[in-house]
Amino acid sequence: MTGETSALQLVLTGDPGLYAIVGLSLLVSLSAVLCAALIGVPFGALLALTRFPGRAGVIVVLNALMGLPPVVAGLAIYLLLSRSGPLGSLGLLFTPQAMIIAQTLLVTPIIAALTRQTVEDLWAEYRDELAALDVGPIGRVATLVWDARFSLVTALLAGFGRAAAEVGAIIIVGGNIDGFTRTMTTAIALETSKGDLPLAIGLGLVLIAIIILINALAWGARRAGERYAG
Amino acid sequence: MLTQFNRRLLIAAAIGGAIAAGAPALAQDKSIVVASTTSTQDSGLFEYLLPLVKAKTGITVKVISQGTGQALDTGRRGDADVVFVHAKSAEEKFLAEGQGVKRYPVMYNDFVLIGPKSDPAGIKGMKDVGKALTAIMDKKADFISRGDKSGTHVAELALWKASGIDIEAAKGPWYKSIGQGMGAALNTAGAGNAYVLSDRGTWIHYKNKDQLAVLVEGDKRMFNQYGVMLVNPEKHPTVKKDLGQAFIDYLISPEGQKAIANYKINGEQLFYPNAEDRGA
C-alpha cells in the first residue's frame, strides 16, 4: 500500500493488499474467539454450577482478567514463544498462530466470565426442575448452555470486539510483517507512524464498518435462530 | 437426531478450517526474519527493496520493525535471522558478545534537526549542531527525544555529549522522552511545535510535515551508518544461515547497492550505498 492512495480508493479498487489485511484480521480474531469459546463456555458454565472453597476468589480473578492489558498478554506470549523461551522450539513467534494464541488469552476470560453470569442466572430458574429430573453435572452444563445459547452470542460478540480492536498484543507477537502478520489495527498503527493520517483514519473506518457488519450478521442469525427455536 | 450430528460436523469443520487456514504459514518456505529499525520501515525502503530481493534470490524477507536496541535484543533471543540496524557502537557490542557473525556496512544517510518553521530557538541554518542544541537548551524550547534506545536515540545522546551538554543533568520539562518510533516522534513534535532529531530517510517519506521543517543539517557529526549482521547460528541453531547470508550478500552486491541508490522520493535519494567502505 502506498500512502498516495486513500483508504476509500483501496476499497473501491479492490486493492489485494487491503483485502489480505482484512482477511488476516478476521481469520485471527474469529479463530481466537472460536478457541476462547471452546475453553471459556464450558469453564464458565462449570463455574456457575459448582460450589467449592475459593470459588469467590476464582470469579473475582476471572472478572478482573477481562481487563487484562493486551500489551501484557502479548509480552507473556512473546516470552513463551521466543526461541529463548520454553516453547521456542515450536517456531511460532511472528506468525498468525502466535497472534491467535495471544488473542485467545485476551478473549477467554471475557467469554468465561459472561458465560458464568448468564448460566448462573438461568440456573436459579431451572434448579428445581433439573434436580427433580436427576440430571447429572455434565447434563446440567449441557442443558443450561444450550438454553442460554442466544444470550451467549452476546458474550462471543464482546470477545470478538475485544479481539478485533486490540493492537497491543498482536503487534508484539506478530511483528507487523508486511503480507504475513499485518492486520487492520497494526496497519493503522504503522500508517500513523508514517504520518499518513488520512490513510490511517480511512483504514480505521473500514475496520469499524467490518465490525458493524459482523455484529449485524450475528444479530440476524440470533433472530432467525430464536424464531426457528421458538 | 440428524441435526445433532450436523451440528457436531459443523463445529468440527469450523475448527478444521481455522487450523487449515493457519497451515500455509507453518510451511517453512524460503523465508527469513530480519529485525530492523523503524527508519528503514517508515522511510519506505523495505517496501521498495524486498520485492527486488525476492525476484533475485527467491527469499521472502519478513521484517520486524523495531528500534535498533530492541532489534538487537530480538537477535539476542534468537528470534531473528538477520539484524539490519544503525548504531555502530551497539552493533560492535553485539558482535563482541558473540551474538553476530560479522558486520557489513551497507549504506548511510544523515540525521537532520527538525523543528517548527517559527523556530523559537533561532537555530535555522546553523552549521554546528552543537550550537543549535545549546540554543534549544538555553531557550528551553520543547525537544522530543525518541527515548527508546533506537539508533536515532543513541545518535541524539551522542550529539548532546559532543556539544558538551550532560543531558541527564540539563533536561527539564522541555525535554520530552516519548519512547516511540521515528514517525510517532515526528507526529509529537509537529503537534507541539517541538524540535526533534530524525534520520533523513524517514523525514523525506513522512507525510504529515505541516509546520515542521529541516532547520540544521550537514554537520559531519550527523552521519548515520547502517550495518547488517547474520545472527550467530552457533548460539542460535534455528538461524537460517544460508538464506540470511544470501540476503546480506545481495545487499552488499553491486546490484543490491545500485538498487538502494535508486530508491528516491520526488527525485531525492534517501540512502547512499557504501558497502565497499569496510571501515564504515
Structural write-up:
The complex is a heterodimer of chains A (230) and B (280). Chain A is mainly α and 230 residues long. Chain A has helices spanning 7-12, 16-49, 55-65, 70-81, 96-132, 137-147, 149-165, 168-174, 184-193, 197-229. Chain A has a domain at 25-184: MetI-like (MetI-like fold, Orthogonal Bundle), CATH 1.10.3720. Chain A has ten helices and no strands. In chain A, helix 2 crosses helix 7, helix 3 (55-65) packs antiparallel against helix 5 and helix 5 packs across helix 6. Chain A is globular. The model of chain A has no long low-confidence stretch (mean pLDDT 91). In chain B, helix 11 crosses helix 12 (254-261). Chain B is an alpha/beta fold and 280 residues long. Classes of the chains: A mainly alpha (230), B alpha/beta (280). The A-B interface holds A 2-3, 27, 30-31, 34-35, 38, 82-85, 88, 91, 93-97, 100, 175-178, 180-181, 190, 192-197 and B 14-15, 18, 21-22, 25-26, 28, 33, 38, 41-42, 44, 46-47, 50, 62-65, 77-79, 180-184, 186-187, 190, 205-209, 236, 238.
Largest sheet of chain A: none
How many distinct beta strands of chain B?
Answer: 12
DSSP summary, beta strand count of chain A: 0
What is the 3D shape of chain A?
globular
Order of helices and strands of chain B: HEHHEHEHEHEHHEHEHEEHHEEE
**CATH homologous superfamily title of the domain at 25-184 in chain A:** MetI-like
Q: Total number of helical segments of chain B? A: 12
Low-confidence stretches of chain A: none
Distance between the termini of chain A: 49 Å
If classified by CATH, what would the architecture of the domain at 25-184 in chain A be? Orthogonal Bundle
Put the structure in a nutshell.
The complex is a heterodimer of chains A (230) and B (280). Chain A has 230 residues and is an all-alpha fold.
